[in-house]
Write a structure and sequence with these properties.
This protein is α+β, with helices and mostly antiparallel strands and 228 residues long. It is 25% helix and 36% strand. The chain folds into three domains: 78 residues, Elongation Factor Tu (Ef-tu), domain 3 (Beta Barrel); 84 residues, Elongation Factor Tu (Ef-tu), domain 3 (Beta Barrel); 39 residues. It contains four helices and twelve strands; from the N terminus they run ββαβββαββββββαβα. 25% of the residues are buried.
């Protein structure tokens, strides 16, 4: 689990495909790598990946094809920048919101409004079904960054990025038509799915009650016919 507060920016050194597995090489600063061990999870642009090797300020991660093809990793290039975050610890202060590291959709930046020291990004998810989990003033994770949804339309939404976030993340480098990873808020998804399931159960129950009542009416009708 993560918080969406970026701790470092990494640079892609290499990406290699071997036996249906991708090997992603990310270089970052020594402070971030301090006390890290093989087997630990790191958020890379919002996607939870496991370290398989560490050397010379470089972390190596495995990415399975399914994850590779369903995230922005399929578009990543050498020398691209990635947002990095270590997993949350029990005694950590949660500055953003709870993030699982499981990408729910990729999305395209459709518009950017630049101000003196901030940006507004308009983002359209490729999986349009994710829009029902995107609520105005709710939380969303974009390329690993915890942000608040500013506005919501039918098929896209906007986020306002403050100067500090721009300075500390790769979002300052984004352009129109760039792709990003998004993870909708896990609590919002859970609540909406639970309510949907409840309503579906109620509909099913009502349908069964109606069918039983119709059957009873039919039985009464046939009994009357037999008696007559």
């Amino acid at each position: 689990m993560f918080t969406g507060i970026i701790q470092s920016i990494g640079i892609v050194q290499n990406i290699i495909l071997k036996k249906n597995l991708y090997f992603l090489y990310i270089k970052t600063n020594k402070n971030f790598l301090k006390n890290l061990k093989i087997g630990e999870s790191i958020s890379n642009n919002g996607c939870c990946l496991t370290i398989i090797k560490l050397y010379n300020n470089i972390m190596i991660f495995n990415i399975i094809k399914q994850t590779f093809n369903s995230t922005t990793f399929k578009k990543i290039k050498i020398r691209d920048y990635v947002n990095l975050e270590k997993p949350i610890k029990i005694n950590n202060f949660i500055g953003g919101h709870i993030v699982s590291g499981h990408i729910t959709s990729t999305a395209i930046i459709t518009n950017i409004k630049n101000y003196t020291s901030s940006k507004i990004l308009w983002i359209k998810p490729n999986n349009i079904l994710q829009m029902k989990y995107i609520l105005k003033k709710g939380s969303i994770c974009i390329d690993g960054v915890s942000l608040t949804i500013d506005k919501k339309l039918k098929n896209k939404f906007s986020v306002n990025i403050i100067p500090k976030t721009l300075f500390k993340t790769t979002l300052s480098k984004k352009n129109i038509y760039n792709y990003v990873n998004i993870e909708t808020d896990i609590h919002t998804r859970t609540i909406i799915k639970t309510v949907e399931k409840l309503f579906n159960n109620i509909k099913y129950l009502k349908k069964n009650i109606k069918r039983n009542m119709d059957d009873k009416k039919k039985n009464k009708y046939y009994k009357k016919i037999r008696k007559s």
